[in-house]
Design brief:
Elements (H helix, E strand, L loop, with lengths): L46 H8 L3 E2 L5 E2 L11 E2 L2 E2 L5 E4 L9 E4 L6 E2 L12 E4 L10 E4 L13 E5 L10 E4 L2 E4 L6 E4 L2 E4 L54 E4 L8 E5 L6 E4 L2 E4 L74 E2 L13 E2 L6 E4 L2 E4 L64 E2 L13 E2 L6 E3 L5 E3 L53 E7 L6 E3 L13 E4 L2 E2 L1 E2 L9 E5 L9 E4 L8 E7 L1
Parallel strand pairs: 1-8, 2-5, 31-32
Antiparallel strand pairs: 3-4, 5-6, 6-7, 8-9, 9-10, 11-12, 13-14, 15-16, 17-18, 19-20, 21-22, 23-24, 25-26, 27-34, 28-33, 29-30, 29-34, 32-33
């Protein structure tokens, strides 16, 4: 197939004059052809050269560099950052002695004037282009003398071109030969080819502190909306403020406003009996709320803090029936005291022990305290000992216990003896995880034995000794008893026959557990693999990049390793940076090749071309190895 080479595949400076067919015709109508200043008649003329001729300039051959200060006109040296060698042309224009100025040729000894500018007639209107230099490169200079006598006339040069060296400074941008002013578009703009401040472009950020003086503000320009957090709204404060004073009964004292100074000494008057000022704040004074200050029925239970109303806070006779809301005087509202010497009414005379109340007492007589109040006990389950109620020893019988009430935490260790338990009471569900050791469990246990297919071996129970030699039977092929006396699946014991179809889910597989040896050939189909589960680390091949160089005779190139046979179609070969064609057999020419997985020396991969690549051709191979 034909090979297409694009411009991006050609290295810079690769196409030399020798590679170009100079007999052809080249059309640069859509591009630009650039050339140096002409020096011989057959050279192409640049626009600058044509313009100079048209403007009366006499162009000389270009110089490599131009001076910026007085120099010594001998030896190789550096001028304007350019290292000069013998034979280089230099424009000397800044000598202290102006008659030394001119175009010189560098030498290891004394410099000499260039042959195209060594006679006086060659100086007037002579122009020269500077090729290199930190500050003078790409500048053009012209001799301004009308007449020159070499060796006596002070020769001067003036710059007349060098737009390429103009750079855009701060606030400027350059496009081609055009300079433009950069504006932010929010505070400044360009309108009708003129800079101006943008409407609404001056915000508080742009105004310096204290920059807006009274003279800068138009009359009536400051409206209320322009004032931050202000209450002076549409009002003229004028002389009316002079009349500001404290009302006769306004509870304020102040110094009258004098028209220029702020109101001062503004203070709240308090009686200091019921209200006081503390830490610059008004507050109720301790003990300041007297009976006269409280409205009738104003003090409810919700208003009184528990325990707040002590005996000293209540005037004698102040709490009458009319002052107390129903349910207000809860126990918490009464200070610790006794209602003593007071008759609570005839109803108390009826206080007595209920017939089945388990109490005995002497009836209240209206003046003496209740006496002889006692608790009645049956003396069988409950008794009074040392003036205290207690449960009598051995009093809690089965009838006294509710079902399920005796938990493990309620039983003292060793407390349950045979005598404490009714026959047949301790069912299996009542026993915690434990062993009943050293006890004969009855003749029924004699029949305990291993089932024929129960995978257990044991010695039969003999009625008095514990069962011994109890063991789990294993096949030793799929299940074993390991060294820790535990039943375990034997390594390699789970064969295909032991697994149900679709039994092995992701959750059943440990990370990295499935190795190549664990998989049968062809067992892993596309359906068995979760999307995006196959990462590069799971693939046993990896990309390999190798390169070689053609010698004009070799057709085959051996790789450093074998190629995975399943990946032969992924081998890509490049010749000189261009991908060429892989064919199954019989490659043709230098642009087709075949691949063998292990045909190379020592069983490595091999790439074979239709014909030998040329001497120096770069061969690159990318494959999966």
């Amino acid at each position: 197939m034909a090979v297409q080479i694009t411009g991006s595949q050609i290295q810079n400076n690769t196409v030399t004059a020798g590679k170009i067919d100079l007999t052809g015709t080249f059309n640069f109508a859509s591009g630009t052809l650039r050339a140096a200043a002409p020096s011989v008649d057959t050279d192409v003329a640049t626009k600058a050269y044509v313009d100079s001729v048209a403007s009366g300039l006499a162009w000389k051959s270009p110089v490599k560099a131009a001076t910026t200060a007085n120099i010594t006109l001998s030896g190789t040296q550096t001028v304007d950052g350019v290292s000069l060698l013998a034979g280089d042309r230099v424009l000397v224009k800044d000598q202290t002695d102006g008659k030394e100025n001119g175009v010189y040729v560098v030498a290891s000894g004394s410099w000499t004037r260039a042959t195209d500018m060594d006679a006086g007639s060659e100086f007037p209107s002579s122009a020269v282009f500077v090729q290199q230099g930190s500050t003078q490169g790409d500048f053009g200079y012209v001799c301004t003398n009308d007449a020159v006598t070499v060796g006596s006339t002070a020769i001067t040069f003036a710059q007349f071109t060098g737009a390429a060296n103009v750079v855009a400074g701060d606030g400027l941008s350059k496009t081609g030969n055009e300079l433009a002013v950069n504006v932010d578009g929010s505070t400044l703009e360009i309108s009708a080819d003129a800079l101006k401040i943008k409407d609404s472009g001056v915000t508080a950020t742009q105004i310096a502190s204290a920059a807006v003086s009274t003279a800068k503000i138009q009359d009536a320009a400051v409206t209320n909306a322009k004032l931050a957090n202000s209450t002076i709204s549409g009002k003229s404060l004028g002389a009316n403020l002079d009349s500001l004073s404290a009302a006769a009964a306004g509870a304020l004292t102040m110094t009258a406003y004098n028209g220029s100074a702020a109101v001062s000494d503004l203070a709240v008057n308090v009686d200091d009996a019921s209200i006081e000022i503390a830490t610059n704040a008004l507050q109720l004074k301790d003990s300041g709320v007297s009976t006269a200050k409280i409205a009738n029925a104003a003090v409810t239970g919700l208003k009184i803090e528990d325990g707040a109303v002590s005996n000293t806070k209540i005037s004698d006779g102040a709490i009458t029936g009319a002052k107390v809301q129903d349910g207000t005087l809860a126990n918490a509202k009464l200070a610790n005291s006794t209602i003593s010497g007071k008759s609570l009414g005839a109803n108390l005379d009826s206080l007595s022990a209920a017939a089945a109340g388990a109490l005995t007492m002497t009836a209240y007589n209206g003046s003496a305290a209740v006496s002889n109040l006692a608790v009645n006990v049956d003396g069988v389950t409950v008794e009074i000992a040392t003036n205290a109620l207690q449960v009598k020893n051995a009093a809690i019988t089965s009838a006294k216990l509710s079902d399920g009430s005796v938990s493990n935490t309620k039983i003292q260790d060793g407390a349950i003896t045979g005598a404490k338990v009714q026959d047949g009471t301790l069912a299996n569900a009542k026993l915690a995880n434990s062993t009943i050791s050293g006890k004969s469990l009855g003749a029924n246990l004699d029949s305990l034995s291993a089932s024929v297919s129960g995978a257990i071996t044991m010695t039969a129970y003999n009625g008095s000794a514990a069962v011994s030699n109890l063991a789990v039977n294993v096949d030793g092929v799929t299940v074993e008893i390991d060294g820790s006396n535990k039943v375990a699946i034997k390594n390699l014991g789970v064969g295909t026959a032991k697994l149900a179809d679709n039994a092995v889910s992701t959750a059943k597989i440990a990370n990295a557990a499935v190795t190549t040896a664990k998989l049968s050939d062809g067992s892993v189909s596309n359906a068995k693999i979760i999307d995006a589960a196959v990462t590069p680390a799971k693939i046993s091949v990896s990309p390999v990049y190798e390169s070689a160089t053609g010698d004009g005779s070799a057709v085959s190139f051996d790789l450093s390793g074998a190629i995975a046979s399943a990946w032969l179609g992924g081998v890509v070969v490049y010749r000189n940076g261009l991908a060429i064609e892989l064919v199954a057999s019989s490659p043709s020419g230098q642009d087709q090749y075949t691949v063998a997985a292990t045909a190379g020396a020592g069983g490595v991969g091999r790439v074979t071309f239709g014909s030998a690549p040329s001497n120096g051709d770069k061969i690159s191979v990318l494959y999966w190895g």
